[in-house]
Amino acid sequence: MIGLREIRALGPNEIIWDRGKGAVAGFGARRRTGTAVTYMLKYRTTDGRQRWHVIGRHGSPWTPDDARERARKLLVAIVEGADPSAEKQAARKAATVAELCDLYLADAEAGRLLTRRNVAKKSTTLALDKGRIDRHIKPLLGRMAVAAVDRADVERFMHDVAAGKTAARTKTAKKRGLARVTGGRTAATRAVGLLGGIFTYAVRHRMRPDNPVTGVQRFADQKRERRLSDDEYAALGAALHLREEQRQGKPEAIWPPALAMTSFLLLSGWRTGEAAALRWPEIDLARRTATLIDTKTGRSIRPLSNAACDVLKALPRIAGDRVFPASRGGPATILHFKKIWPRIAKLAGQSGDVTPHTLRRSFASVAADLGYSEPTIAALVGHTGRSVTSRYVHSADAVLLAAADAVANRVAELMGELKPEVDVVSLRAAR
After folding, report:
1. Which helix (H) or strand (E) holds 30?
2. Which of 49, 378, 386, 387 is disulfide-compatible with 45, CB 3.0–4.6 A?
């Protein structure tokens, strides 16, 4: 058996194996050109592959007896299917969270990651994911090994983001571009949601056996119930009407398609991204129908009110086939509109909590005020839940068109652009 005397007698580049009574098969010691001696174990895996596993260097803490006992325990684990050499190499080469995020984004951009609707992520979603990774996940977790992250790390990450630990002002790739990262509970909840998807990707690729985000209690989602009041509708209508009058005959400080897009959002209840991406070939003004191929909920047929059609008919065909083009062209219409919206809101005296999505929520609220059912409102604004038959429909029916007109007319009335209809009832003269 290997003892201290055998270890001291080892020559350069010499290996000795454990022999005799009580010896452990495959346990040995090796000395290279220096004086250091290393204990090792030579074994075969359950599938017949030969492996060499280094237990440790002779000295504190390893003695021949301690190293032999360690080799004996390893052999028991190997019989049960373990492979200590491969596990050690994997741990040494373990990917960091930053590297995992890069792999995740590469597959997502290549279209190899599918959403719940079994479609690839959109470019706008990928941009949001990349922002959360670069500004929250990598700074706080990027250097950790993927296999080392546990639930406590995820919870600490969430609270750090909520407390503003990642708050910063960073330069973007665009000229004079500046990103303001504030953190907060909403940002923390969404960053943890993305982190859960990234670790699901890691589990699927066998980079770790479980998802550490599972079971983490997140902050409640702050759902916004904000809608426009009658006075706010009137203020927006007056501001848009005044701006249109001032635009006649002289350059306009606010890009005209952005003003038209605001009116369209007010009268249609569409998502900002849907209006920003709208193209003329998707519109059938004769049937008052828009066919959106790629929306948040897939293909969508939308009825167009007469008021919304009037906005579209008044638009010039500036360049390309975009209905609401950006002032400098290119595909970034939605980002362009989001930068202009604060100026439009300020012009109308709106508070800071009025966003473009508030216009969509207000449209749906007006429809509910008029007594329309949830399925009708869902069809007007493009919510999920429509039937399979709707995939084969190419135009909106008369009922939906009438509903779209009623809601748009009420919005126009609140904006001061349409006088309320008055029903005249003839009374019989009293005798």
Report:
1. strand 27-31
2. 49
